[in-house]
Amino acid sequence: MIGFRPFALLVGCALILGGAMLAWMVQSSNGVAIRDVYFARIDGHQLAGRLYIPPGATTQHLAPAVLTVHAYLGSRASQSGLAIELARRGYVVLALDQPGHGRSDPPALADGFGGPDGLRYLRALPMVDPDRIGLHGHGLGGTAVLTAAEAQPDQYQAMVLDGAAPGTDGMRPGNPSFPRNLALIYGRYDAYSRQLWGIESPRDIGRSDRLAKLFGVTNEVAPGRVYGDRAAGTARVLYSPMMADLTAPISRDAIAYAVAWFDRTLRPGAPSNGADQIWMWRAVAGLVALIGLVVLLLGSVNLLLPILSLIDTPDSAVIARDGRWWLDVALTAWIPVMTFFPFLGFGATWLPAGPVFRQAVTNQILTWLLLNAAIGLASARMPGAPVAATITRLAASFGCAIASVALCVALGSAVFWAFQIDFGAWVFALRPMTTDRFLIFLIYLPGFTLAFGAMLHRLNTRLSVYNDRAILHYASNIAALAGGLFIFIAVQYGTLVATGQLLSWAQPTNIALAVQLLPIMAIAALVSTFIWRRTGNALLGSLITGLIVTWYFAAGQAVHVSW
Fold it and tell me: What SS3 string covers 31-68?
């Protein structure tokens, strides 16, 4: 009979391979060819993107094409849902990485956010019909395509803005003829209504004065009604689906509206069915692959523990869930939430992006984590028992951590290149590292490892209850580390749904960042608890978590300073 250790490795590999194959089948549906492309920006730096080419697109049969650009802190993978649906309907699609994002060279926010160069590259492709080109942008990606439209006003025929607006980020204000043939998709729970449209609630978008000027009307804009004339380039339509700005890339309605508008403006008279969608299975596949990667990680650790003589009993645990235990849980869950906004602000002020620490948002998150670790160390009950470790045990722990995470990184890179898939879905994904991003990884690794070392040591030595059942132990630690963030996010978006504004309405970007942090904290609690139950202390779990979290941020966050 196969023992648990090799069995976990086999299950992890099977989930990864199964998820990758499913993702590939969905992406290449209807014979679509997919390839990564790289081309020069106007300043000589490199832009990257993912190109989707339907089988009917040739130099003899030119196809309509769409440039789609992701929001701030996203990547081309964020736009895979729309890209898949357009490509399987016959469009050539370029899903672009903004400068400093994904695999495009830094700095972020440069060169029109990549929009003008992306449009020039797309128009030059030999299978693209230059008279049928559409632009799509989500969030800051909307600014990218608006920049492209302003720089090349006669080089596109239609645009879809998803949670974006003309006249923001220093852009030219919109009017009835700019941008050309515009569909505006604006969710009823969008968190940026004040900044973008000058209204208190996104549900009042139709009554926005800025929107009226854009549509050239004096009364309220009715969702779904087409204004203007397509042939003259003045067509306008507002769609108002039940979604938040953060969920736009995974909204069936938003994708259906975008597909329908491009069909209407770039393929008039052709049949259109935006509701026929399969992209969701690509998201499921990425999630399955991520679960497989976690199983593989834990299985490899479990295999190495007896080999490296790291198995031991826990060095400390509390006896029961008494009043002091509940106080510790409350502190663990709520201090990071209460300090979230001010400590992110400190990070922006104290550690701006520079020649060493090049990722501005990662600097803010690292500052938040380190300051919370310092708060823990300043409390008598926070550190828990000292970590008992000999030189041999330290060396074995480092070896186990590096070997297990390196296996995951290597497999993740191989799967990425073979199947064009990231591990994860929506806002969370582990991506392969370029050489430059590996150097960023090495720079940030000590800080993240130190921060999680303090947090996870306290979590496991002060909140683990003696003889707890495994499921209760895991649930308790995940709730302690991630529960505060979960409640914080639920309250913010619950308030948005109820009132039309976030509770902290001036912090929409940071609240969206908290959504990314939630799965990170949950995975950190899961991995560290699994290892602590087997090794007897938090050292190995802290090392592995530091490696994984640094991988996530180094490979996935925007880079704001060039090399």
Answer: HCEEEEEEEECCCCCEEEEEEEECCCCCCCCCEEEEEE
